[in-house]
Amino acid sequence: MCLGIPGQIVEIKDAAEGMAMVNVSGVKREVNLGCVLPEDSNLDALIGRWTLVHVGFAMSLIDEEEAQKTLEILAELGELQEELDAMQNSEVD
């Protein structure tokens, strides 16, 4: 099952392409920020923000409280580890 999972934007990898590194419960993953670009195009303003990540895209910005609650619920349902494993297995070295 593919879920949207909360992650924190920790680094802008390629501003021209709108790519960033997101930390999802200790797993870092490169994602596309196209859906959450600020109006002023200042990607650095997104560092530290939480986003809902789905199949390599930051789909929406969420607050930290919502992110933590969602992570807790996913962990309780047993879905969090499954999604983290899928993210780690799909990384390209």
Task: Describe this structure as you would to a colleague.
27% of the residues lie in helices and 35% in strands. It is an alpha+beta fold and 93 residues long. A hairpin with a 2-residue loop joins strand 4 and strand 5 (57-62). The longest helix has 14 residues, at 64-77.
Give the DSSP E fraction (strand runs of 2 or more residues).
Answer: 35-45%
Strand order across the largest sheet: 3-2-1-4-5
Q: What is the helical fraction, as a range of percent?
A: 25-40%
Structural classification: alpha+beta
* Mean of all residue-level pLDDT scores: 87
Weakly predicted, low-confidence segments? none
What order do the SSEs take from the amino end to the carboxyl end, as H and E? Answer: EEEEEHH
| Count of alpha/pi helices | 2
Cα Rg:
13 Å
Biggest beta sheet summary? 5 strands, antiparallel
Distance between the termini: 24 Å
Shape: globular
Oligomer: single chain
Number of strands: 5
Looking at this protein, list some descriptive labels.
single chain, 93 residues, 2 helices, 5 strands
TL;DR of this structure?
This protein has helices at 64-77, 79-89, and strands spanning 5-14, 19-24, 27-32, 50-54, 57-62. It is an alpha+beta fold.
Helices and strands, with pairings:
Blueprint: E1 5-14, E2 19-24, E3 27-32, E4 50-54, E5 57-62, H1 64-77, H2 79-89
Antiparallel strand pairs: 1-2, 1-4, 2-3, 4-5
